[in-house]
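Handout, section B. The chain below has 265 residues.
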Amino acid sequence: MRGEDASGGMESADADRSTDGRVTPPDSAPTCTNPNPQGCQLSEECPPGEECSFEPRHGCAPSACSCDAGEWNCTPDCGGGICAVPMSQCQGPNPAGCTSRGCGFQQVCDVGAGGCVPSNCECDGDGNWLCSGDCEGGVCVREARVCTTDADCAFGNEWCENGTCVYCDNPPVCDIACPEGERRPRRNGCQPCECKPYTLHWFIGCPDQACDGHDGRRGLDPCTNEQAGAECGEEFDRCDPGDECNRMLMCREDDPALTGECEGE
C-alpha cells in the first residue's frame, strides 16, 4: 500500500526514503565516475591486441567490484587479471635463480653455489631475457640429509656416505668392461658406469626377529676359521657361526648392516 507524501500526494512505490525523510528517486543515486578497477577473467574482455594476464609483474587487480554511493567497493584479493600487450616468447628456460622460482622435491636453493645467477629475469617485447644485475639468484642443489644406512636415502638415486645422502649416478646403459680385480660399484639400487677395485670380506648377516637362540634353521655348514671383517675369496660364500640370533657370515663386497638390508628383519 502506498503512503501519502507531505503534499498529500502518493509516494511512488519505487522511491527511496532518505534518513532525513526526503524521498530520492532511484535514478538520482550517486554513480561511480571512475573506471571499474575490477580485473579481467578472459582475454575477450580486453581491447584488441591485448590479453588478460595474471602475471605478478603486471600488478594486482581485484576479482570483483561494485559501485556503492559513488565509490567502487572491491574484494580484497588479486584474483583478477590485467589487460596487457602479450610479450614475445623468449627462447630457453628463464635464467633467473631459484630465489624467485623455487626448487623441486628434496632440493634447496643455495645462493652461494653456481657462480653469479640473477635473482629475477623477464622476457621483453623482442624475445630477450632482461635480468637483474645482482648475483643473489642461487641454484637448486640436493638437500643434504643425514643418514645412518643406505635405507635412509632415495633408492636408485642416493647412497649414504659419511653420514649424508649423496647422489649416485645410475645410467640405464653402460658398455664398459671392467678389468680383473675391478667392478662397477653396486649399492642401494645404484650402479655407476665406472670401474673400481674391490675386495670381498666376511660380514655378519641379518638377525632373526625373535632372536631366541641358535637352531641352525638356515641349513648352512658351520664356520671354521672364518671371521667377520676378514677377507674372503668366493663371493656369496656363507657359513653358520652359531649365532644366538641365527645370523650367518657372508662373503660379499659391502656390509648389509649399512645398506639397509636388515631394516625389515
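Note. The mean pLDDT is 80. Compare this with the example in section A.
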